[in-house]
Amino acid sequence: MISTQFNTKLKILKMKIDILTKEDLEEFKKVILSEIKLLLKPEVSAQKEWLRSVEVRKILKISPGTLQNLRINGQLDHKKVGSIFYYAYSDI
């Protein structure tokens, strides 16, 4: 009777123990890092209709002066609300 109970408890204990290998941990690390990168990655979604100057400069990889020249020369349409310039995503 005691032996049967002991064997049953031992079987349950064995089922709860999983052995992790170094490769398992490396794979887990890769998955976690890729998820974190996705969360931290600044994305400009196509759903956003209007962009601010900083976002436009990041997308086009241009300086503030270049963006100003594009506005002045009429090469990039914009709307000004207060002191903030907005650009239609479709124009970028």
Question: Would you write up a description of this structure?
Answer:
The protein is mainly α and 92 residues long. The protein is 55% helix and 12% strand. The chain has two domains: 2-40, no CATH class; 50-91. It has a three-stranded antiparallel beta sheet with strand order 1-3-2. A hairpin with a 2-residue loop joins β2 and β3 (84-88). The longest helix has 19 residues, at 22-40. The chain is rod-shaped.
Write the layout of secondary structure elements.
Layout: H1 2-16, H2 22-40, E1 50-52, H3 53-60, H4 64-72, E2 79-81, E3 84-88
Antiparallel strand pairs: 1-3, 2-3
Features:
2 domains; three-stranded antiparallel beta sheet; rod-shaped; 92 residues; 3 strands; 12% strand; 55% helix
User: For the terminal residues, how far apart are their CA atoms?
Assistant: 78 Å
Mean pLDDT across residues:
85
Major β-sheet profile: 3 strands, antiparallel
- Percentage of residues in DSSP E strands: 5-15%
> Stretches where pLDDT falls below 50 for ≥5 residues?
none
Helicity, as a percent range = 55-70%
Number of domains: 2
H/E series: HHEHHEE
**Structural shape:** rod-shaped
Short account of what is shown:
The chain is built from four helices and three strands, in the order ααβααββ. The chain has 92 residues and is mostly helical.
